[in-house]
Description:
Low-confidence stretches: 1-33, 268-280
CATH topology: Rossmann fold
Shape: globular
Helix content: 25-40%
CATH class: Alpha Beta
Radius of gyration: 17 Å
Amino acid sequence: MAQDSQGAGNPSPHPLGVAEAAQPYSVEAGAGSEADSTSPHYRQLNLARLQTQGMVVHDGGRTSVAEDFRIIKRPLLRNARASGAEAIRHGNLIVVTSALPGEGKTYCAVNLAMSIAMEMDMTVLLVDADVARPSVLKVLGLPPEPGLMDVLLDEQVAMSDVILKTNIPALSILPAGRSNRHATELLASRAMSRLLSEIASRYADRIVVFDSPPLLITSEAHALVGQMGQVVMVVEAETTTQHAVKEALRQIEACEHIHLIYNKTRAFPGNDYYGYGDYD
């Protein structure tokens, strides 16, 4: 397997947590175009609040978190842009997961999306695919909204109806939407495969970051991870057991591009940071 790893900061002591389609799966109004603040799909993010919570924000200065996620995103973007013999199928679809809950995957997914949105020639769609326990909107200070599950459950709901644009022009959000007891089957369905192919191929400059459920707790994660081009697995330092990490990696060993973020390690007293690396 080809994979990567480096470092990122987390000042917060409690992390806040990657083909042709039928008409209902149209994503024409997705990430990429300039946000219209008068649109019913526009949401204003409180960037000052996010910065105080240790998140990467535009114009937030050269913080340790921002610098670390600049390092983390680079090999992911390189893989996403690869062409010819090095091209990765769905390389622009990046899922962020973990072995267990509470390891910081949502924090990492949001920061990764925020950092990618700073690229000069990229747009990013942040998808909350942790449909059993969605938290992306909560982290961003937004109320629950219709989203991914609503598109999969109702043919009359289009992606353009549920994608939220933000005051960060290059960042859009797809919420998890309503909960459903058949979430695993929906995420593994042909409808989801068509939707992912549509999202992956519609815009050449779009990166899609999925916040996934933990691998060892839910079956939804496996249905999702198997359809992604790149996997980022967050591991909490000094908490997650080696057995849990190995078991999680074993379950996704068919994925060729797995990256690890070693979360909440300490470089020296009082300075938290992330370690990022490839897994072979």
